[in-house]
Amino acid sequence: MDDPSKKRDHVIIRTSFVGIIANIFLASFKAIIGILSHSIAVILDAVNNLSDVLSSLITIIGTRLASKKPDKEHPLGHGRAEYISAMIVSAIVLYAGLVSLYESVKKIIDPVLPDYSIGGLIFIAAAVIVKIFVGLYFKKVGSGVKSASLVASGKDALFDAILSTSVFISAIVYITTGVSLEAYVGVIISLFIIRAGIEMLQEMIGEILGRRADRELVSAIKETVCTEPEVSGAYDLMLHSYGPDRFVGSVHIEIPDTLTANEIDALERRIADSVMIKHGVLLTGIGIYSVNTSDDKIKSLRSDINRTVMSHDGVLQMHGFYLDPSDNTIQMDVILDFALDDREAVFAQIVDDLERTYPDYRFRVAMDIDI
After folding, report:
1. Do the beta carbons of residue 165 and residue 121 sit within 8 Å?
2. Using one digit for the tens of pLDDT, what is the confidence trace for 102-150?
3. Do the beta carbons of residue 29 and residue 123 sit within 8 Å?
4. Is 46 helix (H, G, I), strand (E, B) or coil?
5. Distance CA 32, CA 55 (A)
6. What string of H, E and C letters represents the secondary structure of 150-176?
7. In contact, 165 and 126? CB cutoff 8 Å
């Protein structure tokens, strides 16, 4: 697992350095053109390129921090540092949009007529092409290695290309008609940049708060768990992200009530090994649901109770069913949809329905969550 991680870090850092070199070059020439032509739009474009340099530096720092080995204070590693660096990059994008908006509004109130040169326009057109390639390159590489920072930088670069395009178009309009639109165009583009910054921040905040795991990964892990012949079902799989592709999780499995402790221990070890090898996920806990296997009447009762529970609106699943014959106690979990207006009321109705329909049994029902 270590070599792929190192290769990923190398790809992210190399890509970031490409962005740094490209943006320093673009920012330098745009600043010169902007100062000579008295164009606030070109100067803001240059400042935006400098913010991209800072974003790439932060991406490199975040990647370096995330690749640090686990220690006593951080036993599960430092992978979440990438989320923090991506948030900082998003904040820089948002700040750049706010500054651009402020400066553009200022130029609407107190306009300064630009003076474009042919050479400057040619360079701005070339800069658009460069930023498009840089943006697409960053997004492709970032998606490939699952780097939120690179993807955010790629989106920012594509917005820069739009900004530069608007500057170029407004310059052509000014040269041909004498009407200066660059400040108004700057306002429009600034609003798009601000929106992109907010969306990227929201995405990273969602990662840090803990979002729902990828459905395909969850299904694949459950399928692997259920390949063991003793396992009749896998439920309550929880995955905690400690950086891109760094998951620690737990799961509940349904197994026959006839298995011994030694057999359960061996089964859990096989499952943990298989999930780590196939999916790179560390299962730190495997809970068990005991399944009645010796009485066909109990199996039939389970089917009847399942139909009763599933007849209620908003019920997604019933699992973990076990009947203790010694005191006729039935234990089970019921998953309710988050879309229900009052999940507690529906749950109470289900329990009441079970107790009235099956008065000979005591019910211990847990309201589970849809994870």
Report:
1. no
2. 877 887 887 766 666 777 778 778 888 888 888 898 888 888 877 777 7
3. yes
4. helix
5. 22
6. HHHHHHHHHHHHHHHHHHHHHHHHHHH
7. no
User: Which tens digit of pLDDT belongs to each residue from 163-213?
Assistant: 778 778 877 888 888 777 777 877 877 787 788 788 878 877 877 777 777
SS3 state at 100:
helix
Show the tokens assigned to 279.
């999916």
Q: Residue 365: which of 286, 353, 254 has the closest Cα?
A: 353
Query: Could you tell me which residues are beta bridge partners of residue 354?
Result: none
Sheet of 281-291: strands edge to edge? 233-241, 247-256, 281-291
Domain extents for the chain?
Answer: 2-209, 215-368
Amino acid at 74: H
CA distance linking residue 70 with residue 81, whole number of Å: 13
Q: Which contacts qualify for 142-148: CB closer than 8 Å, 24 or more apart?
A: 142/12, 142/15, 144/11, 145/8, 145/11, 145/12, 145/244, 146/244, 146/245, 147/8, 147/12, 147/59, 147/63, 147/82, 147/244, 148/82, 148/83, 148/86, 148/203, 148/204, 148/207, 148/244
Do 232 and 252 meet the contact criterion of CB atoms below 8 Å apart?
Answer: no
Residue with tokens 């032509």: 37
Q: At 85, which amino acid appears?
A: S
Q: End-to-end alpha-carbon separation of the chain, Å? A: 27
Contact 268, 303 (CB under 8 A): no
| Contact between 93 and 204 (Cβ < 8 Å) | no
Give the CATH class of 2-209. Answer: mainly alpha
Top-level class of domain 215-368: alpha beta
Claim: this prediction has a pTM higher than 0.85: no
Residues 312, 53: Cα–Cα separation, whole Å: 56
